[in-house]
Write a structure and sequence with these properties.
heterodimer; B: mainly alpha; two-stranded antiparallel sheet
Chain lengths: ~160, ~325
Protein backbone atom coordinates (compact mmCIF):
# COMPACT_ATOMS: atom_id res chain seq x y z
CA UNK A 1 0.00 0.00 0.00
CA UNK A 2 2.88 2.26 0.75
CA UNK A 3 3.78 2.18 -2.93
CA UNK A 4 0.44 3.68 -3.91
CA UNK A 5 0.44 6.57 -1.45
CA UNK A 6 2.50 9.42 -2.80
CA UNK A 7 4.55 11.28 -0.21
CA UNK A 8 4.01 15.02 0.18
CA UNK A 9 7.74 15.71 0.23
CA UNK A 10 8.46 13.93 -3.02
CA UNK A 11 5.48 15.58 -4.74
CA UNK A 12 6.79 18.96 -3.62
CA UNK A 13 10.36 18.31 -4.71
CA UNK A 14 9.33 16.70 -7.98
CA UNK A 15 7.14 19.67 -8.83
CA UNK A 16 9.82 22.21 -7.93
CA UNK A 17 12.72 20.40 -9.56
CA UNK A 18 10.84 19.43 -12.70
CA UNK A 19 9.43 22.91 -13.26
CA UNK A 20 12.88 24.38 -12.69
CA UNK A 21 14.24 21.87 -15.16
CA UNK A 22 11.61 22.83 -17.74
CA UNK A 23 12.34 26.50 -17.20
CA UNK A 24 16.15 26.29 -17.24
CA UNK A 25 16.33 23.81 -20.10
CA UNK A 26 13.68 25.73 -22.01
CA UNK A 27 15.69 28.89 -21.76
CA UNK A 28 19.26 27.63 -22.05
CA UNK A 29 18.98 24.34 -23.90
CA UNK A 30 15.81 23.79 -25.93
CA UNK A 31 15.57 27.31 -27.24
CA UNK A 32 19.11 27.53 -28.69
CA UNK A 33 19.01 23.88 -29.83
CA UNK A 34 15.67 24.16 -31.60
CA UNK A 35 16.58 27.53 -33.07
CA UNK A 36 19.86 26.16 -34.39
CA UNK A 37 18.07 23.15 -35.86
CA UNK A 38 15.49 25.39 -37.47
CA UNK A 39 18.10 27.72 -38.92
CA UNK A 40 20.07 24.77 -40.23
CA UNK A 41 17.00 23.21 -41.77
CA UNK A 42 16.07 26.49 -43.38
CA UNK A 43 19.55 27.00 -44.75
CA UNK A 44 19.58 23.47 -46.15
CA UNK A 45 16.22 24.01 -47.76
CA UNK A 46 17.36 27.33 -49.15
CA UNK A 47 20.53 25.76 -50.55
CA UNK A 48 18.49 23.02 -52.15
CA UNK A 49 16.09 25.55 -53.62
CA UNK A 50 18.95 27.65 -54.96
CA UNK A 51 20.54 24.60 -56.51
CA UNK A 52 17.25 23.65 -58.10
CA UNK A 53 16.83 27.18 -59.41
CA UNK A 54 20.34 27.20 -60.82
CA UNK A 55 19.68 23.88 -62.45
CA UNK A 56 16.50 25.18 -64.02
CA UNK A 57 18.24 28.31 -65.22
CA UNK A 58 21.03 26.19 -66.65
CA UNK A 59 18.48 24.12 -68.47
CA UNK A 60 16.77 27.21 -69.79
CA UNK A 61 20.08 28.59 -70.96
CA UNK A 62 20.86 25.32 -72.64
CA UNK A 63 17.49 25.30 -74.33
CA UNK A 64 18.02 28.92 -75.42
CA UNK A 65 21.41 28.04 -76.79
CA UNK A 66 20.01 25.13 -78.70
CA UNK A 67 17.27 27.33 -80.04
CA UNK A 68 19.77 29.97 -81.08
CA UNK A 69 21.94 27.39 -82.77
CA UNK A 70 18.94 25.98 -84.52
CA UNK A 71 17.90 29.40 -85.68
CA UNK A 72 21.38 30.18 -86.93
CA UNK A 73 21.50 26.93 -88.81
CA UNK A 74 18.13 27.61 -90.27
CA UNK A 75 19.15 31.08 -91.32
CA UNK A 76 22.32 29.82 -92.90
CA UNK A 77 20.40 27.26 -94.87
CA UNK A 78 17.97 29.90 -95.96
CA UNK A 79 20.79 32.16 -97.04
CA UNK A 80 22.51 29.39 -98.89
CA UNK A 81 19.30 28.48 -100.63
CA UNK A 82 18.67 32.07 -101.60
CA UNK A 83 22.21 32.49 -102.84
CA UNK A 84 21.90 29.34 -104.86
CA UNK A 85 18.68 30.50 -106.48
CA UNK A 86 20.16 33.90 -107.20
CA UNK A 87 23.23 32.31 -108.69
CA UNK A 88 21.11 30.05 -110.77
CA UNK A 89 18.98 32.92 -111.93
CA UNK A 90 22.07 34.92 -112.83
CA UNK A 91 23.53 31.95 -114.63
CA UNK A 92 20.31 31.33 -116.51
CA UNK A 93 20.03 34.93 -117.46
CA UNK A 94 23.61 35.04 -118.61
CA UNK A 95 23.09 31.92 -120.58
CA UNK A 96 19.97 33.35 -122.17
CA UNK A 97 21.75 36.59 -122.92
CA UNK A 98 24.70 34.80 -124.41
CA UNK A 99 22.56 32.63 -126.62
CA UNK A 100 20.60 35.64 -127.75
CA UNK A 101 23.77 37.51 -128.59
CA UNK A 102 25.18 34.53 -130.44
CA UNK A 103 22.02 34.17 -132.38
CA UNK A 104 22.07 37.83 -133.25
CA UNK A 105 25.67 37.58 -134.28
CA UNK A 106 24.88 34.57 -136.36
CA UNK A 107 21.94 36.29 -137.99
CA UNK A 108 24.02 39.40 -138.55
CA UNK A 109 26.83 37.36 -139.99
CA UNK A 110 24.40 35.49 -142.13
CA UNK A 111 22.89 38.76 -143.33
CA UNK A 112 26.33 40.18 -144.01
CA UNK A 113 27.32 37.07 -145.91
CA UNK A 114 24.10 37.27 -147.83
CA UNK A 115 24.74 40.89 -148.66
CA UNK A 116 28.36 40.18 -149.64
CA UNK A 117 27.18 37.29 -151.69
CA UNK A 118 24.62 39.45 -153.35
CA UNK A 119 27.17 42.15 -153.96
CA UNK A 120 29.64 39.62 -155.32
CA UNK A 121 27.00 38.12 -157.53
CA UNK A 122 26.05 41.53 -158.76
CA UNK A 123 29.71 42.27 -159.37
CA UNK A 124 30.16 39.01 -161.25
CA UNK A 125 27.06 39.68 -163.18
CA UNK A 126 28.29 43.15 -164.00
CA UNK A 127 31.70 41.80 -165.03
CA UNK A 128 30.06 39.11 -167.09
CA UNK A 129 27.90 41.74 -168.68
CA UNK A 130 30.94 43.91 -169.30
CA UNK A 131 32.86 41.00 -170.68
CA UNK A 132 29.92 39.94 -172.74
CA UNK A 133 29.66 43.46 -174.07
CA UNK A 134 33.41 43.52 -174.68
CA UNK A 135 33.29 40.12 -176.36
CA UNK A 136 30.30 41.15 -178.35
CA UNK A 137 32.10 44.30 -179.32
CA UNK A 138 35.24 42.41 -180.32
CA UNK A 139 33.20 39.76 -182.08
CA UNK A 140 31.37 42.42 -183.84
CA UNK A 141 34.67 44.06 -184.76
CA UNK A 142 36.17 40.79 -186.01
CA UNK A 143 33.06 39.88 -187.90
CA UNK A 144 33.68 43.00 -189.77
CA UNK A 145 37.12 41.82 -190.94
CA UNK A 146 37.22 38.15 -191.45
CA UNK A 147 35.51 35.08 -190.43
CA UNK A 148 38.57 33.06 -189.51
CA UNK A 149 40.00 35.81 -187.48
CA UNK A 150 36.72 36.26 -185.69
CA UNK A 151 36.56 32.62 -184.88
CA UNK A 152 40.14 32.65 -183.58
CA UNK A 153 39.52 35.68 -181.59
CA UNK A 154 36.39 34.30 -179.99
CA UNK A 155 38.20 31.11 -179.17
CA UNK A 156 41.04 33.09 -177.71
CA UNK A 157 38.73 35.08 -175.56
CA UNK A 158 36.93 32.06 -174.46
CA UNK A 159 40.25 30.48 -173.56
CA UNK A 160 41.18 33.59 -171.71
CA UNK A 161 37.87 33.54 -169.97
CA UNK A 162 38.41 29.95 -168.94
CA UNK A 163 41.76 30.96 -167.46
CA UNK A 164 40.07 33.52 -165.48
CA UNK B 1 31.12 -2.61 -26.14
CA UNK B 2 31.09 0.02 -23.43
CA UNK B 3 27.40 -0.60 -22.92
CA UNK B 4 27.98 -4.34 -22.54
CA UNK B 5 30.66 -3.81 -19.95
CA UNK B 6 28.49 -1.41 -18.00
CA UNK B 7 25.58 -3.86 -18.09
CA UNK B 8 27.78 -6.66 -16.79
CA UNK B 9 28.99 -4.38 -14.04
CA UNK B 10 25.41 -3.51 -13.20
CA UNK B 11 24.74 -7.16 -12.41
CA UNK B 12 27.89 -7.67 -10.51
CA UNK B 13 27.06 -4.75 -8.28
CA UNK B 14 23.38 -5.51 -8.08
CA UNK B 15 24.11 -9.03 -6.91
CA UNK B 16 26.77 -7.80 -4.58
CA UNK B 17 24.51 -5.22 -3.00
CA UNK B 18 21.68 -7.68 -2.72
CA UNK B 19 23.85 -10.33 -1.15
CA UNK B 20 24.91 -7.87 1.51
CA UNK B 21 21.44 -6.55 2.03
CA UNK B 22 19.98 -10.00 2.49
CA UNK B 23 22.59 -11.09 4.95
CA UNK B 24 22.04 -7.93 6.96
CA UNK B 25 19.96 -9.28 9.79
CA UNK B 26 21.98 -12.10 11.27
CA UNK B 27 20.12 -15.31 11.86
CA UNK B 28 16.84 -14.11 10.40
CA UNK B 29 15.57 -16.07 7.41
CA UNK B 30 15.75 -14.27 4.08
CA UNK B 31 12.50 -12.46 3.36
CA UNK B 32 12.23 -11.76 -0.38
CA UNK B 33 9.17 -9.53 -0.06
CA UNK B 34 10.83 -7.36 2.52
CA UNK B 35 14.00 -7.12 0.45
CA UNK B 36 12.06 -6.11 -2.65
CA UNK B 37 9.97 -3.53 -0.84
CA UNK B 38 13.12 -2.14 0.71
CA UNK B 39 14.60 -1.67 -2.76
CA UNK B 40 11.64 -0.09 -4.49
CA UNK B 41 10.47 2.13 -1.63
CA UNK B 42 11.69 5.52 -0.64
CA UNK B 43 13.97 5.91 2.37
CA UNK B 44 15.55 8.59 4.50
CA UNK B 45 18.98 7.07 4.06
CA UNK B 46 20.75 5.82 0.98
CA UNK B 47 21.70 2.25 1.67
CA UNK B 48 24.52 1.10 -0.63
CA UNK B 49 26.01 -1.79 1.31
CA UNK B 50 26.07 -3.02 4.91
CA UNK B 51 28.90 -1.92 7.11
CA UNK B 52 30.33 1.20 8.58
CA UNK B 53 30.11 3.55 5.59
CA UNK B 54 27.65 1.70 3.38
CA UNK B 55 24.69 3.83 4.37
CA UNK B 56 24.69 7.49 3.43
CA UNK B 57 22.59 9.65 5.75
CA UNK B 58 20.34 12.18 4.05
CA UNK B 59 18.99 15.50 5.30
CA UNK B 60 15.64 15.37 7.05
CA UNK B 61 13.45 18.43 6.67
CA UNK B 62 10.30 18.44 8.75
CA UNK B 63 7.72 21.13 9.19
CA UNK B 64 5.08 21.03 11.85
CA UNK B 65 2.65 23.82 12.67
CA UNK B 66 3.54 23.45 16.35
CA UNK B 67 7.30 23.06 16.34
CA UNK B 68 8.15 24.83 13.12
CA UNK B 69 10.95 23.73 10.82
CA UNK B 70 13.35 20.95 11.79
CA UNK B 71 16.42 20.20 9.68
CA UNK B 72 18.88 17.46 10.65
CA UNK B 73 20.70 14.45 9.18
CA UNK B 74 18.95 11.10 9.20
CA UNK B 75 21.97 9.63 11.00
CA UNK B 76 20.53 11.19 14.15
CA UNK B 77 17.95 8.38 14.16
CA UNK B 78 20.73 5.75 14.21
CA UNK B 79 18.76 3.54 11.77
CA UNK B 80 15.64 3.78 13.86
CA UNK B 81 17.29 3.05 17.20
CA UNK B 82 17.11 6.62 18.47
CA UNK B 83 14.60 9.40 18.39
CA UNK B 84 15.47 13.04 17.78
CA UNK B 85 13.61 16.19 18.72
CA UNK B 86 10.37 14.33 19.30
CA UNK B 87 10.56 12.42 16.01
CA UNK B 88 11.25 8.71 15.64
CA UNK B 89 12.09 6.56 12.62
CA UNK B 90 9.93 3.46 12.17
CA UNK B 91 9.87 1.16 9.11
CA UNK B 92 11.27 3.83 6.82
CA UNK B 93 8.85 6.49 8.04
CA UNK B 94 9.32 9.38 10.37
CA UNK B 95 6.66 9.59 13.04
CA UNK B 96 6.06 12.20 15.67
CA UNK B 97 6.28 10.64 19.10
CA UNK B 98 3.41 12.73 20.39
CA UNK B 99 1.30 11.97 17.33
CA UNK B 100 1.24 15.63 16.23
CA UNK B 101 0.69 16.58 12.61
CA UNK B 102 3.76 17.44 10.50
CA UNK B 103 4.94 17.51 6.91
CA UNK B 104 7.98 15.64 5.66
CA UNK B 105 9.96 17.56 3.04
CA UNK B 106 13.11 15.52 3.59
CA UNK B 107 15.71 14.98 0.94
CA UNK B 108 14.93 11.29 0.78
CA UNK B 109 16.65 8.75 -1.42
CA UNK B 110 14.19 9.55 -4.22
CA UNK B 111 14.58 13.31 -3.82
CA UNK B 112 18.35 12.94 -3.83
CA UNK B 113 18.19 10.85 -6.96
CA UNK B 114 15.75 13.36 -8.45
CA UNK B 115 18.31 16.09 -7.88
CA UNK B 116 21.01 13.87 -9.33
CA UNK B 117 18.85 13.15 -12.38
CA UNK B 118 18.15 16.85 -12.82
CA UNK B 119 21.87 17.68 -12.58
CA UNK B 120 22.75 14.99 -15.14
CA UNK B 121 20.03 16.21 -17.52
CA UNK B 122 21.12 19.82 -17.11
CA UNK B 123 24.74 18.88 -17.68
CA UNK B 124 23.89 16.84 -20.81
CA UNK B 125 21.64 19.36 -22.49
CA UNK B 126 23.57 22.45 -21.57
CA UNK B 127 26.60 20.77 -23.20
CA UNK B 128 24.46 19.92 -26.21
CA UNK B 129 23.32 23.54 -26.42
CA UNK B 130 26.93 24.66 -26.10
CA UNK B 131 27.72 22.46 -29.09
CA UNK B 132 25.24 24.41 -31.18
CA UNK B 133 26.79 27.67 -30.09
CA UNK B 134 30.31 26.46 -30.82
CA UNK B 135 29.80 24.86 -34.25
CA UNK B 136 27.23 27.28 -35.50
CA UNK B 137 25.82 26.21 -38.85
CA UNK B 138 28.09 23.18 -38.93
CA UNK B 139 27.54 19.46 -38.57
CA UNK B 140 26.90 18.34 -34.97
CA UNK B 141 29.81 16.92 -33.00
CA UNK B 142 30.18 14.59 -30.01
CA UNK B 143 27.34 14.52 -27.49
CA UNK B 144 25.47 16.97 -29.69
CA UNK B 145 25.34 14.51 -32.58
CA UNK B 146 24.11 11.75 -30.24
CA UNK B 147 21.17 13.74 -28.90
CA UNK B 148 20.25 15.69 -32.02
CA UNK B 149 18.44 12.79 -33.72
CA UNK B 150 16.60 11.99 -30.49
CA UNK B 151 15.52 15.62 -30.06
CA UNK B 152 14.43 15.67 -33.69
CA UNK B 153 12.59 12.38 -33.21
CA UNK B 154 10.64 13.84 -30.28
CA UNK B 155 9.93 16.99 -32.25
CA UNK B 156 9.06 15.47 -35.63
CA UNK B 157 7.56 12.12 -34.71
CA UNK B 158 5.92 12.64 -31.34
CA UNK B 159 5.04 16.30 -30.86
CA UNK B 160 4.47 17.70 -34.34
CA UNK B 161 2.03 15.09 -35.71
CA UNK B 162 -0.07 15.04 -32.52
CA UNK B 163 -0.24 18.71 -31.61
CA UNK B 164 -0.16 20.30 -35.05
CA UNK B 165 0.86 23.82 -36.00
CA UNK B 166 1.16 25.20 -32.47
CA UNK B 167 3.57 22.49 -31.39
CA UNK B 168 6.50 24.83 -30.72
CA UNK B 169 4.96 26.25 -27.54
CA UNK B 170 4.79 22.78 -25.98
CA UNK B 171 8.19 21.52 -27.07
CA UNK B 172 10.17 22.66 -23.98
CA UNK B 173 7.80 20.80 -21.63
CA UNK B 174 7.53 17.67 -23.76
CA UNK B 175 11.26 17.45 -24.48
CA UNK B 176 12.06 17.86 -20.79
CA UNK B 177 9.41 15.26 -19.99
CA UNK B 178 10.80 12.77 -22.49
CA UNK B 179 14.39 13.07 -21.33
CA UNK B 180 13.46 13.21 -17.66
CA UNK B 181 11.50 9.96 -17.90
CA UNK B 182 14.05 8.25 -20.14
CA UNK B 183 17.15 9.21 -18.19
CA UNK B 184 15.31 8.71 -14.88
CA UNK B 185 14.28 5.22 -15.95
CA UNK B 186 17.83 4.34 -16.93
CA UNK B 187 19.34 5.77 -13.76
CA UNK B 188 16.84 3.65 -11.83
CA UNK B 189 18.43 0.59 -13.38
CA UNK B 190 21.90 1.44 -12.14
CA UNK B 191 23.12 -0.39 -9.05
CA UNK B 192 22.18 1.14 -5.73
CA UNK B 193 19.89 3.64 -7.40
CA UNK B 194 16.49 4.71 -6.17
CA UNK B 195 13.26 3.76 -7.88
CA UNK B 196 12.55 7.34 -8.90
CA UNK B 197 10.38 7.07 -12.01
CA UNK B 198 8.66 4.04 -10.45
CA UNK B 199 7.37 6.24 -7.64
CA UNK B 200 3.76 7.23 -7.89
CA UNK B 201 4.44 10.74 -6.56
CA UNK B 202 6.85 11.40 -9.42
CA UNK B 203 4.65 9.96 -12.16
CA UNK B 204 1.62 11.64 -10.58
CA UNK B 205 3.24 15.09 -10.71
CA UNK B 206 4.18 14.59 -14.35
CA UNK B 207 0.66 13.43 -15.20
CA UNK B 208 -0.89 16.39 -13.39
CA UNK B 209 1.38 18.80 -15.27
CA UNK B 210 0.16 17.26 -18.52
CA UNK B 211 -3.44 17.60 -17.31
CA UNK B 212 -2.92 21.25 -16.39
CA UNK B 213 -1.30 21.95 -19.75
CA UNK B 214 -4.16 20.18 -21.51
CA UNK B 215 -6.83 22.15 -19.66
CA UNK B 216 -5.06 25.46 -20.17
CA UNK B 217 -4.68 24.96 -23.89
CA UNK B 218 -8.20 23.59 -24.44
CA UNK B 219 -10.47 25.21 -26.99
CA UNK B 220 -14.24 25.47 -27.20
CA UNK B 221 -14.44 22.45 -29.46
CA UNK B 222 -12.85 20.25 -26.79
CA UNK B 223 -15.42 21.23 -24.15
CA UNK B 224 -18.25 21.00 -26.67
CA UNK B 225 -17.25 17.43 -27.29
CA UNK B 226 -17.34 16.65 -23.60
CA UNK B 227 -20.52 18.43 -22.52
CA UNK B 228 -22.57 18.18 -25.70
CA UNK B 229 -21.09 15.52 -27.97
CA UNK B 230 -22.33 16.14 -31.52
CA UNK B 231 -24.12 13.45 -33.48
CA UNK B 232 -25.21 11.47 -30.43
CA UNK B 233 -28.92 10.81 -29.68
CA UNK B 234 -30.20 12.59 -26.59
CA UNK B 235 -30.68 9.55 -24.30
CA UNK B 236 -27.18 8.35 -25.04
CA UNK B 237 -25.83 11.79 -24.24
CA UNK B 238 -26.71 11.13 -20.60
CA UNK B 239 -24.34 8.18 -20.63
CA UNK B 240 -21.66 9.73 -22.78
CA UNK B 241 -21.32 13.02 -20.92
CA UNK B 242 -20.33 11.52 -17.55
CA UNK B 243 -17.98 9.15 -19.33
CA UNK B 244 -16.37 12.09 -21.12
CA UNK B 245 -16.04 14.05 -17.88
CA UNK B 246 -14.41 11.09 -16.17
CA UNK B 247 -12.25 10.77 -19.28
CA UNK B 248 -10.60 14.12 -18.56
CA UNK B 249 -9.14 12.60 -15.41
CA UNK B 250 -8.61 9.02 -16.49
CA UNK B 251 -6.21 10.15 -19.17
CA UNK B 252 -3.60 11.61 -16.80
CA UNK B 253 -4.42 8.86 -14.31
CA UNK B 254 -3.45 6.27 -16.89
CA UNK B 255 -0.24 8.20 -17.54
CA UNK B 256 0.60 8.11 -13.86
CA UNK B 257 -0.23 4.42 -13.38
CA UNK B 258 1.43 3.22 -16.60
CA UNK B 259 4.87 4.61 -15.87
CA UNK B 260 4.71 3.74 -12.16
CA UNK B 261 3.69 0.15 -12.88
CA UNK B 262 6.05 -0.43 -15.78
CA UNK B 263 9.12 0.67 -13.85
CA UNK B 264 8.20 -0.73 -10.44
CA UNK B 265 7.14 -4.06 -11.94
CA UNK B 266 10.43 -4.25 -13.81
CA UNK B 267 12.34 -3.73 -10.59
CA UNK B 268 10.21 -6.30 -8.76
CA UNK B 269 10.81 -8.89 -11.48
CA UNK B 270 14.57 -8.32 -11.40
CA UNK B 271 14.72 -8.43 -7.61
CA UNK B 272 12.48 -11.51 -7.38
CA UNK B 273 14.70 -13.45 -9.74
CA UNK B 274 17.77 -12.46 -7.79
CA UNK B 275 15.96 -13.28 -4.56
CA UNK B 276 15.58 -16.86 -5.76
CA UNK B 277 19.30 -17.29 -5.24
CA UNK B 278 19.00 -16.49 -1.57
CA UNK B 279 15.83 -18.51 -1.09
CA UNK B 280 17.44 -21.63 -2.55
CA UNK B 281 20.89 -20.86 -1.17
CA UNK B 282 22.34 -22.40 -4.31
CA UNK B 283 25.11 -21.35 -6.67
CA UNK B 284 23.39 -22.99 -9.61
CA UNK B 285 20.22 -20.99 -9.09
CA UNK B 286 22.38 -17.92 -8.67
CA UNK B 287 24.05 -18.42 -12.05
CA UNK B 288 20.73 -19.17 -13.75
CA UNK B 289 18.98 -16.22 -12.12
CA UNK B 290 21.81 -13.90 -13.08
CA UNK B 291 21.55 -14.99 -16.70
CA UNK B 292 17.80 -14.41 -16.79
CA UNK B 293 18.19 -11.12 -14.95
CA UNK B 294 20.75 -10.08 -17.52
CA UNK B 295 18.25 -10.62 -20.31
CA UNK B 296 15.44 -8.94 -18.39
CA UNK B 297 17.69 -5.98 -17.72
CA UNK B 298 18.16 -5.59 -21.45
CA UNK B 299 14.39 -5.60 -21.79
CA UNK B 300 14.22 -3.03 -19.00
CA UNK B 301 16.53 -0.76 -20.96
CA UNK B 302 14.09 -1.03 -23.84
CA UNK B 303 11.16 -0.42 -21.48
CA UNK B 304 12.93 2.68 -20.16
CA UNK B 305 12.92 4.19 -23.66
CA UNK B 306 9.45 2.92 -24.56
CA UNK B 307 7.87 4.35 -21.41
CA UNK B 308 9.48 7.73 -22.06
CA UNK B 309 8.17 7.58 -25.63
CA UNK B 310 4.69 6.54 -24.54
CA UNK B 311 4.41 9.15 -21.81
CA UNK B 312 5.46 11.91 -24.21
CA UNK B 313 3.30 10.55 -27.01
CA UNK B 314 0.14 10.42 -24.90
CA UNK B 315 0.83 13.81 -23.36
CA UNK B 316 1.17 15.25 -26.89
CA UNK B 317 -2.02 13.50 -27.97
CA UNK B 318 -4.02 14.86 -25.02
CA UNK B 319 -2.72 18.38 -25.65
CA UNK B 320 -3.41 17.96 -29.35
CA UNK B 321 -6.98 16.85 -28.64
CA UNK B 322 -7.56 19.88 -26.44
CA UNK B 323 -6.18 22.18 -29.12
CA UNK B 324 -8.31 20.76 -31.88
CA UNK B 325 -10.58 23.27 -33.61
CA UNK B 326 -13.86 22.54 -35.23
CA UNK B 327 -13.53 21.82 -38.91
Amino acid sequence: MELLTPGVGLIFWQLVVFLLLVFVLGKFAWKPILNALKIREESIEEALNTAEQARQEMEKLKADNAKLLDEARHEREEMLKEARTTANAIKDEARADASKATEKMITDARAAIEAEKKAAMADVRNQITDLSIMITEKVLLEKLSEDQAQKDLINNYIKELKLN
Amino acid sequence: MKLKISIVFTFVFLNFGLANASSGEEGEPFNAGEMIMHHISDSHEWHLWDGAYGTVPLPVILYSPDKGLDVFMSSKFDHGHASYNGYAYEDGHIVAEDGAEFYDFSITKNVASLLLTAIIILWIFLSVAKGYRKNKGQAPKGIQSFFEPIIMFVRDDIVKPNIGDKYEKYLPYLLTLFFFVWIGNMLGLTPGAANLTGNIAVTGVLAILTLILTLFSSKRYYWNHIFWPPGVPLPIKFIIIPVEIIGIFTKPFSLMIRLFVAITAGHIVLLSLLGLTFIFQSWAVGVGATLIVFLINLIELLVAAIQAYVFTLFSSMYIGMALEEHH
